Amino acid sequence: MYDRRYSLIxxxxxxxxxxxxxxxLETTISVSGDPWALCWNTTSKxxxxxxxxxDNVTVINGVTNAVITTIxxxxxxxSLCWNATGNKVxxxxxxxxxxxVIxxxxxxVITTVAVGNVPGVLCWxxxxNKVxxxxxxxxNVTVIxxxxxxVITTxxxVDTPLALCWNATGNKVxxxxxxxxNVTVIxxVxxxxxxxxxxxxxxxALCWNAxxxxxxxSNYGSGDVTIIxxxxxxVITTVAxxxxxxxxxxxxxxxxxxxxxExxDNVTVIxxVxxAVITTLPVGxxxxxxxxxxxxxxxxxxxxxxDNVMIIDGATDTVIKTIAVGNSPGAFAWNDxxxxxxxxxxxxxxxxxxxxSLTGIDEDKIAEVSVPWYVPVVFCGSLxxxxxxxxxxxxxxGRSVEPRNIAPGIYFVEMDSRIxxxxxxxx
Length: 427
Description:
By secondary structure, the chain is mainly beta. Helix content is 2%, strand content 54%.
C-alpha cells in the first residue's frame, strides 16, 4: 500500500480547485445560432437556452454541463421562464406569436399557446400559478393558467410592453411599457389593471425589492431609475443613474439595487432603504445584464464589447474579478445547487460557465503543475473533490472515509484508482 499510494504525483489544480479560486471559467458550451435567453430549472437541474436564429432551445445538464437535447421551436425564440409548481418551461416565439410549453422532466413539448403579436417577455406569478407574457407588437399582456396552460385573459397596456416583474407581497404584476413611458400594475388574482404609473423615458427593466416592497424601473431614454411603492403604487422618487440605463438586480443581503448603464459604462448602486445612490462603479464597455449570486453575495455584470464578466462584491461594491468569456456576452442564469453562473455569448453561439467556490478567496486559478506526494494540501471544512472523477479518500490506516465528514488529520486522495494527493485537515 505504501508504494502504490506514495510513489505518484498529481496536478494540484485537479483535486481542489474550489480551495484555490473564488471564481473561474469552468467550461464553454457550444449551442446553436445566436443564444438569446437563459433559465434555470432547479427541480430537474437543467439549463435552457433559447437560440434566436436557429429556432430552437438547447437543454443542458446542470451537473455535467453536457447538452442533453435540442428542442425545435417556432420562429425566433426570445424569452424563457420556469414554472416551479408544474416543472414546466415557457418559451416565447417572437415571430410565431405563441408560447411553447416544455415538460421540465422529459423536455418534450406539452402544448403551444397562441398569444399576442411579437411576444417578448415572461414572468411567473408563484402565488396564483400564472404566466404573464408581454406582447411587444400588440400592446397587451397574455395571462396563462400555469396548471392547464390555457389563456385566462388578455390585458391591454400602453404601449410596447418590454419588462415584467411580480410583487409577491401584494401579488401584483408590473409591466414596463417602453413607448408609453409608464408601468401598468396588474392584480395577480383578478388580472385587472389597478393603476398606470408614469415613469421616465423608455422603461427598460424592472425589479422588486422584497424588503422595502418597492419596484425599481430603469428608464433607458432618461438615464434614471423610478422607484414605486409596492403598497400604494405611487412614485417614491426618481434617482439619476448613467446614460442608457439597462438592466437591474436586487441584492437581498445588503438591500441594494444595481443598475447597469450601457453608454456610460458603469453600474449605479442604490441603497434599498434610503433610495440614495451609494456609488457608481466603472465597469467594461457596454454593460448589458446583471445578476445577483445569493450564495456568495456577488453581482455579475456582462460587458458586451469587452467580452468579459465583471464580478462585484456585494458588501464593498468593488470589482473583485474580471473573467474573459465569449463574444458579446449577455443574459445570465444561475445554478444555485452547484453555484454555477451561465452567460450567453451571442456571436460565438456559446455559453460560458463560471464556477464560484464558497471560500471567498480571490486568486487566479493556478497553472497545472506536478508536485511530489509529500507536499500536502492543507485545508479546513469539507474536502472539495473534482466532479466527473471516481474519487476515494483514505486515512493513514488505509481505511476509506467519507470526505464530507472527516475529522482533522492526514488523508490520501485516490482518483481513478490512483493515489494522487496527500491532504491535511486542520479543523
